[in-house]
From TrEMBL, chains A, B, C, D, E, F:
Alphabetic keyword roster: Apoplast, Disulfide bond, Manganese, Metal-binding, Secreted, Signal
PANTHER family: GERMIN-LIKE PROTEIN SUBFAMILY 3 MEMBER 3
Taxonomic path: Eukaryota, Viridiplantae, Streptophyta, Embryophyta, Tracheophyta
Pfam families for the chain: Cupin_1
Amino-acid positions noted as binding Mn(2+) in the UniProt annotation, renumbered to this chain: 102, 104, 108, 147
Protein name: Germin-like protein
SUPFAM superfamilies in the cross-refs: RmlC-like cupins
Residue positions binding oxalate: 104, 108
Subcellular location: Secreted, Extracellular space, Apoplast
Keyword Signal: yes
One Gene Ontology cellular component annotation held by this UniProt entry: apoplast
Keyword Manganese set for record: yes
């Protein structure tokens, strides 16, 4: 029987030897990147550690102007996601902290694991859907819709989100408009905000 | 020969008689809708007129607070787009008019046919890419990225855009935040805008 | 200004009044279902509660032969996922409990929130990738690959998984082969398991 | 043990009872159809026979002007293909028979099981790729490219093709131009064919 | 506040520094190409000019046997389209000019900006849908269906088309059959055209 | 006329010269591979032979422990499939031979060309759908579902399968669990099989 199985194994391994490469495509950032993601790391060098991400362990202290700490596990920091169409992020909120209004190329689902937050999204009819969530609650934010989270509890809060893209984009509206190179006069025209408010916002982000 | 071809035609028509139904799926809004679009209108009732949209004809006068007039040819108004993954819109600008910052679920390509505009988008690194366009110029706005257009010429301007979705969503940032039911205090928290500015914006849209 | 904005709003609402329907497509199981999911619930009847799932709250006691308790939040129990291509599940393990070897139509990412487990998957070259995970660790299981989780700690364990499909299928190998209507002789032939072992397995699942 | 497994089964069946519906979506042509295919037949009425197609059995005699007999197994005649993105067809050739130049929405792969044919396709640079095939040979025709098959042997020939769409379209160039309602003068203008040749072709198909 | 925002910015830029790469993937033709398009140009070298195409400016004089001038803006000439699934073309017609019958891998939408044309497509049931269009009219041609345009006015005409693919293929039926390397006898067999007509057509395209 | 057509051809070839590259993307395994497949072989070096696969010719003798001989024509052995989303395999069965229970990332359609087999699949509700097939019969196995084939006739049998992926994965349950590096104790825990049976299975595959 052992001989038979060895023959079988040899036969199987011959025909499958390359097929394995696309069971997964752990990204190799040193190679050219295409529209669908990174080129694949040599499968012979892939180990179990490539499929495990440990960057969510421990405490994450919010330390920015929004009172949040966002830990992204997108395909650039966790290359095992490359080509698989899924990714995650951890959201930590100080008391009163927020994730400002933002959007992604994909849909997102949020799971609250600590604290109490209000989460919501706005649809293209300008209707806002928002609710106070308890620990264990799940909320979904449809693809590309503006959404936000606010810590409304008396303690820090933590949530985990999953997105159905390996590199789903995180576009924060306030920083897009005020923290980069967009001129103040354009920002003003395309938002109807006042000249003074645009300058105040740019000062917050150090670009005035 | 005629007999042969009749036999052939009969044979062909028999085998193809249902296959034609998905060469196209003109939407029928009276039937239940699924995540991929409307159910199909009975193909026997489809005529050439279903495939032609005439709503872009003539003059379009900008008459809103932004100085624009947006004519959407999405699958709800032009049901031939249903299931085909493409749509269009016409943008008319008064002198000084703008299409405020907004995003879609899809990518968009713009063709300027009259006037002079500045068009641009912002990426997730807060970098703005914007440029003055002449008649005949084309600019592409990648999927889900915030983008905008401003008439910077001394005459009205007109552009046509195409999007690679039948119902690609049009989410205007200012109206999402200030023209709907989102409470002022939430709008303030998720944007860092001042209390006064949020109230001013809501007054513009009649929701203060 | 108010008049202008009212005109603008009217103009905007007219053109967008149907477009909103596919910002989301909360499933309506009472309507016919298509290959891409359920037909959409009337958007006028959708409320924030449709987007929030509370079924993961509280304790979940493992009570089956595998020592697990699987709470699926697929589109049939949480219709807001319909059409959005994402879903979740909660996995609770008794001491020594397992999620037996299984697969999905989609990829999956797991987040361990309590206890210590070994998680792993097997690729088409018969190579197993498995590892002991700590609280906070994330592991990804590529699309369609057989995978499993085992509680190897001295306490119960809990994990949450996300999958990039609204209804991603959960096909457990042991129950597929032994808990349904597959005849024992076929199960034996297609697995090479012994006659006695197949009967023993079918007794476990009450189908002998 | 039996009690435990019954509890387990009950638990499993409860949570999975609706999930089974999209393991497959056998089409029900009596329900409204969407852009992605037919609505699903009630899973409770689906049997093994739904997944087996017997229309390829036996002899198929070519009897049309092209000397072929095409048996399509698309989703309209084999509803199990609905939503699965795959379909088949059987091609029988008389001596000298041809499948005239045609195209599909999808890619196609052909397997020759009897006789000798020349098969080929033309790319968008007007380069034709064609070759004489033996029994057992496989040729692939890339998505949407014009392609054809000619029986060049001294016996009838048979091939089977698979296409990666449930309803991949079969658009025959000669019948598109000459066997339907396209006026002769338009056919002439859009092909550069002579007036006389267009009339000759329309006579072949009984539409002159 | 400035310190806070600097900390925030540093934190944000760190976590996002690579994520920006797939907001867009401007094609780099000097790198290996994959099935989904070109590899991405180094994002650090991308400027606004990469997103603007000026090749549609000015007059385009029809000068070929069909009386047309087709200016393609596919991803090879406008690499910003790479990976975004959209493209454009400009069609200029001499008086009496035509775009001969052709097809694409994708769907197409046409906007007439000058003159009067008849545009149409043929479905797989050999039904032609065609209509006289006025300036401003839009017509859609479903994926892979044969279609055509004819200038029927007394002046030159111009139209712009958009297609939902970055490289959607343009396969002209007459040149596919007669302007390349397809032998005359095969062209004759797969079309039922006469020997003389095939030779006449090949003479038109210089391949007799 | 010849001059005109030469001018036309020059014009056409100029504008299309790169567009041809993605009519097909024959894989080049010497270049880096991405999640969507291999990079494309230089189109200038592609010939008709690249599109024809001859590996299914002749007799195939089953010689392994399962009594089968599986000849895979996936994109690694037939690179023309690269990027086209389709592939094939030939299945030869000795008398009594089986293709053991297995799954793919894609759907599969089987055509029986010799002998008599029982083919079937199991859905996520543990319901098995299986049937005795005659020559010419077709059976479809939905995406990712466990399925199998058994030669139940008195002669060898042969079938061809097509799958809607270029590299659709072949994951055999018995070899996944027992022929690779998965430790015996894990295999036992995740299947509920007995310690003795796991060891017997591993001996069959030479891994005990």
């Amino acid at each position: 029987m052992r001989n038979l199985s060895l023959i079988f194994l040899f036969c199987l391994l011959s025909s499958l030897s390359h097929a394995i490469e696309l069971d997964f495509c752990v990204g190799d950032p040193s190679l050219p990147r295409g529209p669908e993601g990174y080129a694949c790391k040599d499968p012979a060098k892939v180990t179990t550690d490539d499929f495990v991400y440990t960057g969510f362990r421990g405490e994450k202290t919010p330390n920015n102007v929004f009172g949040n700490n966002v830990t992204l596990a997108f395909s650039d920091v966790f290359p095992a996601f490359n080509g698989l169409g899924i990714s995650m992020a951890r959201l930590d909120f100080a008391i009163g902290g927020v994730i400002p209004v933002h959007s992604h190329r994909t849909s997102e689902v949020l799971l609250l694991v600590k604290g109490t937050i209000i989460a919501g999204f706005i649809d293209t009819n300008n209707t806002a859907y928002y609710k106070r969530l308890e620990v264990g609650d799940v909320m979904v934010f449809p693809q590309a819709m503006l959404h936000f989270q606010i810590n409304v509890g008396k303690t820090p809060a933590t949530a985990f989100v999953s997105l159905n893209g390996a590199n789903p984009a995180l576009q924060l509206t306030p920083t897009s408009l005020f923290a980069g190179n967009l001129p103040a006069d354009i920002a003003q025209q395309i938002t109807l905000l006042s000249h003074e408010e645009v300058r105040r916002m740019k000062r917050i982000f150090g670009t005035a």
